[in-house]
Each structure stands twice: as structure tokens, then as C-alpha cells.
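[Q] Does anyone have a clean C-alpha cell version of this?
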Amino acid sequence: MSGYKVIIVGGYPPPFGGITVHIQRLASILSKHYDVKVIDFYGTSTAGGIDQGAIELIRLRSNTLRNAISALKELCGGHGIVHVHVSSGGNLLRMLCFLIARVSKKLVLTIHSGSFTARLSEKSLLGKSLLRWILQWFDRIVVVNPEQQEALKSLGVLSNKVVIIPAYLKATVEHPPGIAPKIKEMRSRNQVMLISSGLGLPHYGYHVILQALSGVLQDKKVALILALYNTYDRTYLNELTRLAAMLRHVEYVLLEDSQPEEFNYILAQCDAYIRATTIDGDSVAVREALQHGLNVLCSDCVARPTGTTLFSLTSGGSLSKALEATSVSQRRVQSQHDNAKELLSIYESIKGVL
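[A] Here you go.
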């Protein structure tokens, strides 16, 4: 560790959302090279049961006043890099607050959510002008797909500041988690195991999966696992339970707030991962599923990684046909590029001009 300071701003640790998985892995990688601190807006527990290692964590929702003062000291004092992670970039005030760090530090921003493009188009002229003014202060802006890059270009952000780096950072499951026996039993009962994941909200399209299953794979025992986290529309989830109860050949399991190690283990035991979202960024789960060798079925709402099977949400039967084909397909590992080097190169490039 060099003693050079890097402050990551975002949720930590998981499972407060997909971004937190990326931040956890990024912080672990960076801690081997820099003095890493994480300023967390979302969590309230002390560590979430996860070993932080060499990472110092400041939670703004625990001991708010004291930790807010600590965060300000970190942001304002000394040289270094502040890396802000946002979902759709809708909270302009929060992004604006961290411009105070610009006095002595370099700023990096990562935009993760696919909803960024849609929300940007909905902003007023004043809102777009304010966002453009804020973004000009960042030394680098990392986006996870070409749609986000084009949206920033249309906003007038300098293209040499923007780089596309998918959020995937490689991880391994070192020990089977406590849920392993339950998953093995499920595997023994079912010929096909399917999994999907994300927030517990309608735009993740879990109902589309259940509707597709109503007409296919009826000659097989099928397990469908939904690994959800952070945000739950209970009315929607009740409707999913109702739909699942009508499928006699489907064993339906809903998991809430699984730790990343648990999810990674469960994912590896399944035959196919399904991503039926209407909007998306660059799903870490999609790339992890490809890495494990699963058949991966994705809606065509955004560009998807090589190796995925695309289906249309507007074309009736598209997912059903994909599921039929998947049921006879062999697993094939499709190695995913670990983007750690690309992210480290950004730090090194702007570090040299402090």
C-alpha cells in the first residue's frame, strides 16, 4: 500500500444494491495499492458481517453528526482521489456536495444504472444545465454501456473525460455458504434450475419469466429462484407468488438480501440466468453467470455481453422459445474480462497530474 488516499463514496457493504457488490470488490482491489476509505450513505450496521480488511468505513446514517464531520475532514484534507458511485445520477445535491473535495483532490464518477439515460431525457433545460456544470468538475466519468456514453455526449460532456468500463470485477467462492445444503436438495428435486436477481420491482420483469413458464418445460420439474435485494414492492411480490402457485411444475423460491458469496454459490448451481429488465446498466450478475457457464437469457433493452441469448419483451413467446432451447443446451464457460486493470489505470493516469 502506497499511502496515497482514495475515498470511495457509495453503498457498502452489500446487499444494499448491485452497486455495493462492485464497490466491495473495488475497495478490496484498491486497498492493495492505496489507503482506501469508504463513505457509505445507505448502511446502518457496523460491518454487515463482512470483513473490511484494510478498508476504513464511515457510515453517514450511523452517528450521523460525528461521521459527517469525519467525512468532511476526509474529503477536504490532503491530496488524493474521490470516486463517487451513483445509480442514475438523479441526486444532484449529493453530487454537488462532493465538489468540495475538488479543492485538493481529483474526482472520478461512475454511473451504474441503465435508467440514467431515460432520466436525463426527462430533465428540464435547467436540470440538464446544472448536471452538465456538475459533471465538468469530474476528471473522469466511468459509464458501463454505450447508451450512457451517448447520453453524456448529447449533454455536452467532453468525450475525453468519459470511458466505458463494465462493472464486472471477478470474485471467487472460497467456501460453500450455509445455504448450500438447501440448494443441493433443490437441485436433486428438479431437472432444470433457473435464477434471476435484482431489486424487487416490476421493471425487473420477474412476472415475464413466470408467464413464459406457464407454457413451456411442463414435462420437467423446474426450480425458479428470485434473489432479490434492497427494495421491495410487496404488492408486486404477492402477485408473483400468485402466478407461481398456478405453475404445478415450478418450485418457486424467493430469497431476500442474500450476501454476494451466497448468491455466487447459488448462481453456480443453476442451469440458466434470466434478465428480463426493461431498463438496465451492465449487470454484474449477467457476467458472473456467463463466467460460471450458465445459459444466460437477457432482454434486448440494452447492449448485452457476448454469449447471451437475447429475447424481446414486446414479442410474444420470445422468452418461452429461448427457455425451450436452453433446456437442451449444454453449459459452456464464457470467461469474462476482469476490469480491475482498466480502473487502476484511471487512478494512475489522474494521480500523475495532481
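[Q] Thanks! Anything notable?
[A] Confidence is low (pLDDT under 50) at residues 46-51.
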